[in-house]
Amino acid sequence: MVEFNNISNDSVSLAQKLEIYLQAHLDNNHFMGSVLVSYQGKVLLSEGYGMANLEHNVPNLPSTKFRIASISKQFTAAAILQLQEQKLLDINDSLATYLPKYPRGEQIIVRQLLNHTSGISNYTSFEDYESKKSVEIELDKLIDWFKDRPLDFTPGERFSYSNSGYIVLTKIIETVSGLSYKDYLEQHIFALLGMNDSGCDSTRTVLFNRAAGYLFTGESYVHADSLDISIMSGAGALYSTVEDLYKWSRTFDTNIILNQASRDAMFAPTVEVLTGEESNNFYYGYGLRIDTEHNRNRIAHDGGIDGFLTHFARYPDERVTVIVLSNLQTASIPKITQDLAAIIFDEPYEFPKKREAINLAPAILERYAGQYKFKPSPYLSSEDSELFFTVTTDLQRIFIQVTGREKDEIFPESPTEFFLKAVDAQLTFITNDEGESQLIIYQHGRDKVLNKID
Fold first, then answer.
1. CA angle, 62 as apex, 57 and 63 as ends, to 5°?
2. First vs last Cα of the chain: how many Å apart?
3. Contact predicate 148/104, CB 8 Å
4. Residue 305 forms beta bridges with which residues?
């Protein structure tokens, strides 16, 4: 367990605010998991919420092990930088230097794999990913799946998030070090930090204190889809606890894992990321995103995998760390992490509220029926630009369905405002100044505007 240091009265008050906020999300069925928040080097909160295993009535604890998904990438990046410190590789070399048989490897620089500018297609976006994700796969077979596809763009041209790049980095680590990815991390990172509850996950491993992954349907909890974690490898196959990740966070100011030059490289804003917002201050380093939140510098990464959502955030200037690991795939983790930091910094935040549905006449609901698409924007991703949101009604009920997903009922709390029970989201139907019908979806602390197209 992480020990609590002597905490001032002000800190106790902050801890209580954090507890009350998280309990409200739990009461709304919008959160389960473990949370650690530290402030100026002192742990304010290290607690579990809800159940690690609903069937066996096992609660989440600070020591509960979660699949951390893409938070894994920072460990893969650190391993690459360690190998560079050991003069075993150079991130400015071509991929072909270390994997000579990789197609077009002479065009790709290793650092472009680290910051998602390689142009290698993201295999988790392939059409056959869903049919393959539950089957065990070896690293070389995983690379074979995407290596012969054309590059999405000229390497170095722009940012495009790609799990494939981190799979290739995993292969480089194994080739250069002579160790498996699992053994390398255990020997060169986890053992050095005493991260005894962290490792490379395996579906076959019996792992004590492991959390099971769930979704909330709006009525009940159900098991998440099956996923063989081998398909994520160095892109997202690690498990950990909030307490172990706090040990990791504290090394960011030390030379235990990486020297100063390597840390500076890892935390540098190497490429701008387009997020869909007109004013963008979001960059990617190596395995971490570099941005600002609450007008403060932040180093962070989130993760999402079947049954699990995770977030790791560090505010270096204020010495604040927020770690949220959830075994509820429908939780609003980005907003929860953002609000926890807001509580620490005494910034505005929204307290979770119980929503109450009202009855509306069918004629009111029918006004909103139709198809909606995201408002055109240069920041809109190609995937989002292809999505349709279809609103339908059935007497006094109204539903929304996103392309490729199941239909969800939405519930009115006013003549124009609706909510979902399964996730923490609000939908508002409006007519803008130009007389256009629009749908505004508020989720994860941000508005997304859609235009009605029929």
1. 80
2. 56
3. no
4. 308
Q: What is the pairing mode between strands 58-59 and 397-402?
A: unpaired
Q: Are 27 and 64 in contact (CB under 8 A)?
A: no
Return the residue matching tokens 């976006």.
125
Q: Where are the domains of the chain?
A: 67-345, 362-452
Tokens coding 319: 């010495």
pTM (whole model) above 0.85: yes
* Superfamily (CATH) of domain 362-452: Pab87 octamerisation domain (2.40.128.210)
Whether residue 5 is predicted with pLDDT greater than 50 in this model: the reply is no
- Answer whether residue 275 shows pLDDT above 80: no
Residue 347 exposure: Cα atoms within 13 Å on the Cβ side = 11
The partner residues of 260 in beta bridges, in order of sequence, read none
Reduced to 3 states, what is the DSSP secondary structure of residue 361? coil
Chain position carrying tokens 């939140």: 293
Question: How many angstroms separate the CA atoms of 374 and 138, rounded?
Answer: 38
The tens digit of pLDDT for each residue in 353-392 reads 888 999 999 999 999 999 999 988 766 666 777 889 999 9
CATH number of 67-345: 3.40.710.10
Residue 229 pLDDT? 96
